[in-house]
TrEMBL record:
Residue ranges constituting the Chorismate-utilising enzyme C-terminal domain according to the UniProt record: 293-521
Function: Isochorismate synthase involved in the synthesis of salicylic acid (SA) required for both local and systemic acquired resistance (LAR and SAR) while SA synthesized through the phenylalanine ammonium lyase (PAL) pathway seems to potentiate plant cell death. Also involved in phylloquinone (vitamin K1) synthesis. Has no isochorismate pyruvate lyase (IPL) activity.
Gene3D superfamilies: Anthranilate synthase (3.60.120.10)
GO CC terms: chloroplast
Organism: Gossypium raimondii (Peruvian cotton)
Catalyses which reaction(s): chorismate = isochorismate
Superkingdom of origin organism: Eukaryota
Name of the featured protein: isochorismate synthase
EC numbers for this chain: 5.4.4.2
């Protein structure tokens, strides 16, 4: 009997100050009860030899980084035909350079949802999906891209990018050691501000020092991929693109890259069917929590005792619980994610699935940071109330959230921590609004936006390393909380609560991988 395993999590935070102790508990995965269950279309996954960009020398520049925009077409099938012809031409024109990355993109004169295109593709290829927050609630909406150029500075084709989906990897980046500056430079080596849509999508573990459990093994300590075939959903149109990356020094030649792309293209479906974004009612065979109720209560007691110990540095710690759900049939993670989009307009949606691995999917409202050139923004999001069933009740809950000393303390700790981290690498940091309420479909949080200007582009790695993990998913001080979590929790968080997003040449964006699940097939 085929089935699927879904792992998702609950977190509880405990904190202390000189005068106040508080306990706040909330579900980070309130959506998982509505996950639709589907049979996956394909049952096998296979390993393909590909290029790991982390094995190269980040100090050596790539020979060529280029984007070419072809003539617009009316449909995905016409775009496939155009790209097939382009690949045949490329086979006859081997470049003289020993390394490079080339993107060919075909605009499509129709807006098609990227997640629907991804759902039509084989699930035996590595794949990724990322969409920005679609609404502009609180003046804080997110667009993935403003200017789409052709690689030589021409940005006449300008649209907002709604979401991006990719299959296959032109180049991937993965190691078992913690994500380092060397790894960041290895990724940036393949990117250029002149080619803004050549991006590396991926995620980083919550705690790279912890042992990797079997279910997270395929991800390593981090996993990023530049898709071989990518579908970009734009406002009012779409785009289908292919990317070829090669580096003779990594034993991955132009000919090998072209052959790998051809193999992937043979599996690409050009017919996209509208998805029914509705939950189905397939039965759940079993549900297991780690830790169970007894061990959870012990962990809570241990956390409070540690915080109350006068010699302890620990001020706040955020514990998690893993839920393992076994279903009778396979779960389609892409259909599940599409279902979450219906009620997650003010959230990031993501999916990351490495070769022969499970799918990490989520619907998170929390931005870690967004960088465009040297401008950077982050958010403080903390403290929680439910949404009211009526407007009056909703306003009452909002007022309670804004006036609660306990919630104000939790929120202020998060906001000041992020502000201090930004000030270490920025010339000036602005906090506006300093405190307001951000309303999501089911819950509402205290919220602040922080913006600044990095002193240099390399500070992007520093801000990623310092902001993660945030006090909202780890605690304070960060290292003391991380150690307590490592010693107390009985499971591997993996990429849960870690950074998930993308690096680009002049722009990058990362969310916090909460309200998420790991979906894998079982036989």
């Amino acid at each position: 009997m085929a089935g699927a395993v879904v792992r998702h999590y609950l977190t509880t935070c405990f904190m202390d100050s000189e005068t106040t102790k508080c306990k706040i508990s909330y579900a980070l995965h309130s959506h998982t009860r509505s996950l639709p269950l589907f049979h996956n279309k394909y049952e096998t996954r296979r390993v393909v030899a590909l290029m790991n960009g982390c094995e190269g020398d980040p100090k050596l520049p790539i020979g060529s980084i280029e984007t070419r925009t072809l003539t617009a077409v009316p449909s995905p099938s016409k775009a496939m035909e155009r790209l097939d012809v382009a690949i045949r031409d490329l086979k006859c024109n081997t470049p003289p350079l020993t390394s490079g990355i080339l993107r060919l993109q075909v605009p499509i004169e129709e807006q098609i949802e990227a997640i629907e295109w991804l759902h039509a593709q084989h699930d035996n290829l590595p794949r990724c999906f990322f969409s920005g927050r679609r609404s502009r609630a609180n003046g804080n909406g997110s667009n993935l891209l403003m200017d789409i150029g052709n690689g030589n500075g021409d940005t006449s084709f300008t649209h907002n990018l709604v979401g991006a989906a990719g299959v296959g990897s032109a180049v991937f980046f993965q190691q078992l050691h913690p994500f380092s500056y060397h790894d960041w430079r290895s990724i940036k080596r393949f990117l250029s501000a002149k080619c803004p849509l050549i991006r590396a999508y991926g995620a980083i573990r919550f705690d790279a020092t912890a042992n990797i459990s079997p279910e997270w093994k395929a991800f390593g300590s981090f996993y990023f991929m530049v898709p071989q075939v990518e579908f970009d959903e734009l406002e009012g149109s779409s785009m289908l693109a292919i990317t070829i990356a090669w580096d003779n020094a990594l034993s991955w030649t132009w000919d090998e890259a072209i052959h790998s792309l051809e193999t992937t293209m043979q599996q690409i479906a050009s017919v996209v069917v509208k998805l029914k974004k509705e939950a189905s009612g397939e039965p759940i065979l079993s549900k297991t929590h780690v830790p169970n109720k007894t061990h959870w209560d012990l962990a809570v007691k241990k956390a409070l005792q540690e915080i109350n110990t006068s010699s302890s540095q620990l001020v706040k710690v955020v514990l998690a619980r893993s839920s393992r759900i076994l279903t009778a049939t396979n779960i389609d993670p892409i259909a599940s994610l599409a279902c979450l989009q219906v009620e997650g307009e003010d959230a990031y949606q993501f999916c990351l699935q490495p070769p022969n691995g499970p799918a990490f999917v989520g619907n998170t409202p929390e931005r870690l940071f967004h960088r465009k050139w040297l401008s950077i923004s982050s958010e403080a999001l903390a403290a929680t109330r439910a949404r009211g069933e009526s407007s009056d009740l909703d306003l009452q809950l909002e007022h309670d959230l804004l006036s609660s000393p306990k919630d104000h303390l939790e929120f202020t700790v998060v906001r000041e921590n992020i502000q201090n981290k930004l000030e270490s690498v920025c010339d000036r940091v602005v906090v506006e609004p300093k405190k307001t309420v951000r309303k999501l479909p089911r819950i509402q949080h205290l919220y602040a936006q922080l913006t600044g200007n990095l002193r240099r582009e390399d500070d992007e790695f520093e801000i990623l390393s310092s902001l993660h993990p945030t006090p909202a998913v780890c605690g304070l001080p960060k290292e003391a909380a991380r150690l307590f979590i490592s010693e107390t929790e009985m499971f591997d968080r993996g990429m849960y609560a870690g950074p998930v997003g993308w690096f680009g040449g002049g722009e990058s964006e990362f969310a916090v991988g909460i309200r998420s699940a790991l979906v894998e097939k079982v036989s």
